[in-house]
Structures are given as structure tokens and as C-alpha cells.
Design a protein that fits this description.
Number of strands of chain A: 12
Largest interface: A-B, 29 and 17 residues
Order of helices and strands of chain A: EEEHEEHEHHHEHEHEEHHHEE
Shape of chain A: globular
CATH superfamily of chain B: MetI-like
Radius of gyration of chain B: 24 Å
Number of helices of chain B: 10
Shape of chain B: elongated
Radius of gyration of chain A: 21 Å
Structural class of chain A: alpha/beta
Largest sheet of chain B: none
Helix content of chain A: 25-40%
CATH class of chain B: Mainly Alpha
Structural class of chain B: mainly alpha
Oligomer: heterodimer
CATH architecture of chain B: Orthogonal Bundle
Strand content of chain B: under 5%
Number of helices of chain A: 10
Helix content of chain B: 55-70%
Strand order of the largest sheet of chain A: 6-7-8-3-9-10
Distance between the termini of chain B: 32 Å
């Protein structure tokens, strides 16, 4: 069952001079219930903007966001409030995610007090989520600065769990943490997913992390998804040159492992003025004449599957 | 070989917090002066040795106690109508502090609210409020006061209105800048995701984070307000007799400057001391709250 579906979602920012920055441009993706959809790409590709769109923090310019069969744009006030509870978020920086002047208990109860709940039930729920993320109950009485980075990220996860959501948007949830803490937090997220049958939209730039934690994968470049499909398949057989380059760039702890060909040079182009034709062509090692002028169509990654979720946006895939 | 003295242990909890507040370079003198002004203001009828408006022509123009001809009945001397200067200074403190309190609370509230709105909402709201600040800051305070003096009945309310109109921009500008950076914090975005309403975000997430800066501004403003109020009263635009104000005392004493130096010197020193003290305390607060300059 598809919990969250994005159809042709775009978000443009108007810049001085009347130009538009197309941060997200015509993205389709689907998050299955109980699964993890990972979105990868380098800085500036629009993945965080996409997260904000799903969370309702940025305005949609085109396309539809469908959650559990309902277009989010069609929701009335109370429907939106219920939707708020069903989709929560964990962000990258655990220091910026917690208001330094509020006690942890106040921070955790915020989603409940916002909808008018008070008293014992709120306290009970706070204690419950603290236990779920492995923090002692008395943490509620402390201030955020009394915790380490990893503990703070546990608190932000606890806060996301409070309203009993179905989908959690994880925007680089471990990038700001020490490597030794990352595994703990990732295991915690995995356990919570199994226990509470949560769905994750995981945004990351670290492919090594994504490989083991996601069911499906979408690779983003300059506001577009250039390749998507089941993680295992995409990792085993990347079709888009950009995906190939990203995978080749993952360091292997094996000195004998030959460095894969097709590495990419240069910087990501600006979304203010994307290259003509295929957006990746100035950096693509397999660039052809057609790539410079014609925007590639979306092809299915394999001939056998055509369910609209196993895609690659490249001229090479046409042949 | 001499013994190595153990390093002093750092304090903990309340002790350390107290030391941080009153320890390094706490401006004791400034704080004491401000405290004295506040005590005078709150307890003026009880403390003052005489009624501030008790006229006694027999006692007119008494010099202060330490000068030849001075008496202990009038420690700081008397004016041309025989009113006790000390009692009038104490009564004047009440007026100054009352006006400063109203002016600071009102201009702080209005300024903070508009500054928060400008910083948080941005766009057209920010444009309108920012232009309003620019316009207000380009209008000199004194002509504005004269305009109001012509339209409104002079007195405390008018003085407060003029001061609020002049000073709200202080708060608005600084709070706007602060909120511009605060609104990008993730906890604001997460509060929105949790469905927290905008007024609650203002109250819960913005206000506590700007209180430091508001306290510094308010302390600094206290000195300016006292000087400003004295200036207005000196020009006859502010507090009207028979009410006592430091500025009014200066204006009255001016005529007798050659025969009774204490008539303008004493209120002058009161104004200067109050203003200097609040500036010193404000500077210290700013340094203490500024994490870049804080040394633990």
C-alpha cells in the first residue's frame, strides 16, 4: 500500500530579477507503508526542499502530494491538523532542533498541547516515548544543553513519535553525529520502524548508509529524480551515469578494490540556470550530442517492470 | 620546596550562577545608584524629610548643610520658595521612574511585537514595518514632543506617549534582526510540523530567546528616558508644576544660578548619576549575555 505519493511536485523560488529557482522540478515518488524510501543526492539538489514540501513548510507550485489516498491540498482545517500528527520530522542538527530554553518534557508535549491535550495523558505519553528511544524518564525535567548530541537526536526522535505518526521524514538524521553514535541512532530508527510499523522518507547524501537502511531509492540531481527503484537493484545495477558516479565515489575499505570508472568532475550546476537538454550533461562521462539539446525521457529501468516506480531519466537507457 | 597549592575548585549550581552574575566586573556602584533611585521612587512619601511642595519663605535659599549657613533641617538646602531640595529630588525620582517604567514597558512591548512580526513573517509585513521604523527614526524627538505638547494636555501621559513613539524603534530593529536568525532554527520548523499555532510559536519559541536582549535594551533605555524626560520638563513641555521633576527643578534653578549653585547642581547630578548608572549596568548586562564575550 502506498502511504505517500508525490506526482509531478515542483517548488520554485522567485529570485531578484524575476528569475525562478527551480529547487524541485516535477518529482514523482512513492513511499510504501512500513518501508523506507531513501532520497540521495549532493548538496543543492533539492532534497531538503522536497522534505519541506512534504511537511507543508514550503508552498507547492505544481503537482500533488497524496497522503493515504487524500490530496493534501484538499484537506480542510481539521483534516490538516490530523495530517500534521500523521507526518512528523527529524532534522539534521540536534542542536538547532531543540529550543534551548524549554525543558525536554515541554518540548516533547508540544505536539499534544498544540491540539489541546493537557494533564496526565500528556505526561504518560512523554514518559512512554522517552522509554521508546532509550532515555530515562527524568530526562523530561532537564534542559537540552544537559544532553550530548546523540542523546539530543534521541529526543528529537522521541518528539517525532509523540503524536503517533505513520510517516517520519528523516532529513540527514545522523550526518551531524559522531560516527560511533550513528550506528546506535540508525539501529534505534530501525527498531522503531519494526515495532511501530513506521514509514520513513530518508534524506541522505551518504550512500553507504542508505544501502543498508532503505527499501527503495531515489537519486536526485538538480531538482529532478534521475533514477529510482528498489535499493538492492539500483545498487547492484545503476543505470544512470550519475548514480554510477555516486556509487563509485563511495569509499570501499578494500585497497585492492579497483576504483570504478566514470567518476564525475566539476560542481553541481545552479538550479537558477540549469543546463539545456539533460541537466547532468556538462558532468557526464558518457555525454552524447543529443544530451546537450534534448531533455531525456523517463524510461523504465527494466523492460519487465513498468509500474512507474522503477525509472531512469537518461538517453542511454533508450537504446 | 614550597607546597603546590591546589587549584581552587570551580563552584557549582547556584553558587556558580551567582558568581557569574555578580562576579567579574559587576558594576556595584552603578547598581547601588539605580537601587537608590528605585528606593526613592517607591518610598518617596516615607523617606522624604519634608513635603516636596511645602513652601516656607522664611527658609528660602538655605545652602546645603556643609556650606556656611546650612542647617541639618535641609541637608541639600532649599530653593527660592523654601522647599527642601532633598525632598524634591526624592519626589522627582518617583516621577522619573514612573515615566520610565511606563515608557519602557510600552515601547518594549510595541517594539518587540512589531519587530517579531517583521522578522518572522518577512515579505510585505517586514517591508511595511521596516519603512515605519525608518520614518520614525528620521523624525527628531524634540519637534515631535513640541507637536504633541501643542495637541495634547501636557503631563505624564503626553511624556510617555512621546517617549514610546521615539523609542519603540530601538526594540523593533534589534528584535527583528534577532528573529530573522531565530526563525531559521529547526525547532521553529518542527513546531510548525507539530501543528503549533503562530501565536504560540511567538510566545514559546521567540519570546524567551529575545528576553536577554530586551533586558539589556530596557536598562540602557532607562538612562535615556530620564534624560529625555528631564529635557522635556526643562523646556516646559513635560511635567508641569506643582508636580516635581528633575528637569523642572533645573529650569527653576536656572534663574538663581549666580546666588544658589545647589539649585541646579543637585538635580543635575541626580540626572547624570541615574543615566550613567543605567548605561554602565546595561553595558555590563550586554557583555554578560553575549556568549562571544562570556568567559566561564
Amino acid at each position: 500500500m502506498t502511504l505517500l505519493a508525490l506526482h509531478g511536485v515542483s517548488c520554485h523560488f522567485s529570485m531578484p530579477g524575476g528569475r525562478a529557482l527551480k529547487a524541485v522540478d516535477g518529482v514523482d515518488l512513492a513511499v510504501e507503508a512500513g518501508q523506507t524510501f531513501a532520497l540521495v543526492g549532493e548538496s543543492g539538489c533539492g532534497k531538503s526542499t522536497l522534505a519541506k514540501l512534504v511537511l507543508g513548510l514550503e508552498r507547492l507550485h505544481a503537482g500533488r502530494i497524496v497522503f493515504d489516498g487524500t490530496d493534501v491540498a484538499d484537506l480542510d482545517r481539521s483534516g490538516r491538523r490530523r495530517f500534521r500528527a500523521r507526518v512528523q520530522a527529524v532534522f539534521q542538527d540536534p542542536y538547532s532542533s531543540l529550543n534551548p530554553r524549554l525543558r525536554v518534557g515541554t518540548i516533547l508535549s508540544e505536539p499534544l498541547t498544540a491540539r489541546g491535550e493537557r494533564g496526565r495523558a500528556v505526561q504518560a505519553r512523554t514518559a512512554e516515548v522517552l522509554e521508546l528511544v532509550g532515555l530515562p524518564e527524568n530526562a523530561a525535567r532537564l534542559y537540552p544543553h544537559e544532553f550530548s548530541g546523540g542523546q539530543r537526536q534521541r529526543i528529537t526522535i522521541a518528539r517525532a513519535l509523540v503524536p503517533q505518526p505513520e510517516l517520519i521524514v528523516l532529513d540527514e538524521p545522523v550526518s551531524a553525529l559522531d560516527v560511533s553514535i550513528r550506528a546506535q541512532i540508525l539501529n534505534l530508527l530501525q527498531d522503531l520502524q519494526n515495532e511501530l510499523s513506521l514509514s520513513y522518507l530518508l534524506i541522505a547524501h551518504d550512500l553507504a548508509l542508505v544501502e543498508h537502511t532503505s527499501d527503495r531509492l531515489g537519486v536526485m540531481y538538480l531538482g529532478e529524480i534521475v533514477e529510482s527503484g528498489p535499493s538492492a537493484e539500483v545498487f547492484a545495477e545503476p543505470r544512470h551515469p550519475y548514480t554510477q558516479a555516486l556509487l563509485a565515489a563511495v569509499p570501499r575499505p578494500d585497497p585492492g578494490h579497483p576504483r570504478a570508472s566514470g567518476h564525475v568532475t566539476g560542481e553541481i550546476a545552479t538550479a537558477l540556470d540549469p543546463p539545456s537538454g539533460c541537466r547532468f550533461h556538462p558532468r557526464c562521462p558518457h555525454v552524447m550530442e543529443v544530451c546537450r539539446s534534448v531533455s531525456p525521457a523517463v524510461h523504465t529501468r527494466r523492460d519487465t517492470e513498468a509500474d512507474g516506480t522503477n525509472l531512469v531519466r537518461c538517453h542511454l537507457a533508450a537504446t | 620546596m614550597s607546597e603546590i597549592a591546589p587549584a581552587p575548585l570551580p563552584g557549582f549550581g547556584v553558587g556558580r550562577a551567582m558568581r557569574r552574575v555578580v562576579g567579574r566586573g559587576f558594576p556595584w556602584i552603578a547598581a547601588s545608584i539605580l537601587l537608590l533611585v528605585l528606593v526613592c521612587a517607591l518610598g518617596s512619601p516615607l523617606i522624604a524629610p519634608h513635603a516636596p511642595d511645602a513652601i516656607s519663605l522664611r527658609d528660602a535659599m538655605q545652602p546645603p548643610v556643609w556650606q556656611e549657613g546650612g542647617t541639618t533641617r535641609f541637608l541639600l538646602g532649599t530653593d527660592n520658595l523654601g522647599r527642601d531640595i532633598l525632598s524634591r529630588i526624592i519626589a522627582g525620582a518617583r516621577i522619573s521612574v514612573t515615566i520610565a517604567a511606563y515608557a519602557i514597558v510600552l515601547s518594549g512591548f510595541i517594539g518587540a511585537l512589531l519587530g517579531m512580526a517583521a522578522g518572522y513573517f518577512g515579505g510585505i509585513v517586514d517591508a511595511v514595518i521596516s519603512r515605519l521604523i525608518d520614518i520614525q527614526m528620521s523624525v527628531p524627538a524634540l519637534p515631535l514632543a513640541m507637536l504633541f505638547a501643542a495637541v495634547l494636555p501636557p503631563g505624564e501621559a503626553m511624556v510617555v506617549i512621546v517617549i514610546v513613539l521615539t523609542y519603540w524603534t530601538w526594540y523593533a530593529r534589534i528584535v527583528r534582526g534577532e528573529v530573522l536568525s531565530l526563525r531559521e532554527r529547526d525547532y521553529i520548523a518542527l513546531a510548525k510540523v507539530a501543528g503549533v499555532s503562530t501565536p504560540m510559536i511567538f510566545l514559546r519559541h521567540l519570546t524567551p530567546n529575545i528576553l536577554n536582549i530586551m533586558l539589556v535594551l530596557a536598562t540602557l533605555q532607562f538612562g535615556s528616558v530620564i534624560v529625555f524626560e528631564a529635557g522635556l520638563s526643562f523646556l516646559g513641555l513635560g511635567i508641569q508644576p506643582p508636580q516635581v521633576s528633575w528637569g523642572g527643578m533645573l529650569a527653576d534653578g536656572r534663574n538663581f544660578i549666580e546666588v544658589a549653585w545647589w539649585l541646579i547642581t543637585v538635580p543635575g547630578i541626580a540626572i547624570m548619576a541615574a543615566c550613567l548608572a543605567s548605561n554602565l549596568l546595561g553595558d555590563w548586562l550586554r557583555d554578560t549575555f553575549d556568549p562571544m564575550r562570556r568567559q566561564l
